[in-house]
Amino acid sequence: MKKTILCLLLLPISIFAQTLPDSTQLLQDLRWFSSDILGGRRPGSPGGRAAAQYLSAFFAFQGLKSFKDQYFHPFTVNRGNASLSGKNVLGYIEGTEQPQIWMVISAHYDHVGTMNNQVYNGADDNASGTAGLLQIAAYFSKNKPRHSILFAAWDAEEMGLQGARAFMQEPVVPTDQIALNLNMDMISRNAQNEMYITGTHPYPFLKPIAEEGARQSHIQIRYGHDRPEDHGAQNWISASDHGVFHQAGIPFLYFGVEDHPDYHRPTDDFERIMPSFYFQAVRTILQVAISMDQNLDTVMIHRKEAVAK
Ligand SMILES: [Zn+2]
Hints:
By secondary structure, this protein is an alpha/beta fold. The chain has a single domain (about 30-309), classed as Aminopeptidase (3-Layer(aba) Sandwich), CATH 3.40.630.10. About 40% of the residues lie in helices and about 20% in strands. The model is unreliable at about 1-20 (pLDDT under 50). Zinc ion binds next to α4.
């Protein structure tokens, strides 16, 4: 009898643990990626390499598969006359029903480094998306997706989306089998409690699926920054790595907040993020990812129709 009561008591807790990101780990990871030790995670720097090692170890711990014998996808970063060594970190989980159809969930882990003895920690940009990516990978490693998911932590985004471009030049899965890219970049703070989902204007078939996923979000979800009338910095279609997918004709959704005064400044620190907003943002993105996985075959049909037009 006692055992039964114990089971009943434990059940909701275990369901809770399976459906939500682990808020403690999420914040710990964000804090570490944005700590001074990593020196602003410039591509090819010791801090950048340490971040990549951590990502690789996390993928291994969660049982993600690698495409070669390691999770690293090295490439050369062009820096004017010089070059740096960049390193994407890629892992995947095979789908249980239609493993030939892929979704790429991504975030860039690099930032701009240290300048004039000041560390640009890039807590929001984009330690936030990187730590979120890990929690989403952890979820799907315990709750297998119907379609295959490639988890990509890009390097050298800040130098012109070079990690995502290198991936597209040497793709590890057939790009015509990628139905969708979900990209996170700056998701941990907003004074208005708002996060944007960008991409439903060029890809309207994604909107009802995104809305279904974001239905129970505790933060305000806005759609936009993706219309022809959104000019200059108001148009986010090419603002981060999802732009590379869009250029290749692959539908995308980008998750992010409006710029804030600490954007690309040494003050983009852990202390300035909003923990409860951040947790809710990751939770919402996870729910949208689950909703997309459920409907990825439909997304693929729309994608092919769009290419045929
Ligand atoms: Zn960024």
